[in-house]
C-alpha cells in the first residue's frame, strides 16, 4: 500500500523534485499555496504533508494548526529554504501550535555516508 503525501510549496522545481523522489513508492499530490491547501482538505487525508514555511499567501507555520485540526493523524514536515538554523523547541513540552520540535538543516553543514 502506497503512502499518501501532500507537498505544499510555491516553487514548482521543489515540488517536482520531491514528487520525482517520492512518487515511486507513494501517492503524491501538490498544492502551491495556502488557498490550494484549503481546497485539498476535501481530498482524502494524507499520511504526510511536506509544508513550506513561506508561501505567497500564507505562513506555513500559521497553517499548521488548521492542518492538524482537519487531519489530526497526519504528520507534518516543515520545509524551508531560508539560510537559518532552527533549533529544537526548548523544554519538554510541545509548541503551542501543536507542532513537534522543528528542525532545519543548516546549508553550511555537509553530511556524508560512512
Key attributes of the depicted protein:
114 residues; Rossmann fold; 4-stranded parallel sheet; 23% strand
Write a structural description.
By secondary structure, the protein is of the alpha/beta class. It has helices spanning 12-22, 34-40, 60-70; strands spanning 3-8, 26-31, 48-52, 54-55, 58-59, 75-79. The N and C termini lie far apart (31 Å). The model is unreliable at 88-114 (pLDDT under 50).
Protein topology:
Blueprint: E1 3-8, H1 12-22, E2 26-31, H2 34-40, E3 48-52, E4 54-55, E5 58-59, H3 60-70, E6 75-79
Parallel strand pairs: 1-2, 1-3, 3-6
Antiparallel strand pairs: 4-5
Question: Helix- and strand-based class?
Answer: alpha/beta
- Overall CATH architecture of the domain at 3-79: 3-Layer(aba) Sandwich
Percentage of helical residues? 25-40%
Strand order, main sheet: write it out. Answer: 2-1-3-6
Distance between the termini: 31 Å
* Residue fraction in strands: 15-25%
Total beta strands? 6
Task: Count the DSSP helices.
Answer: 3
Could you report the average pLDDT, rounded to the nearest whole number? 80
Radius of gyration of CA atoms, rounded to a whole number: 14 Å
Q: Would you give the CATH topology of the domain at 3-79?
A: Rossmann fold
CATH class of the domain at 3-79: Alpha Beta
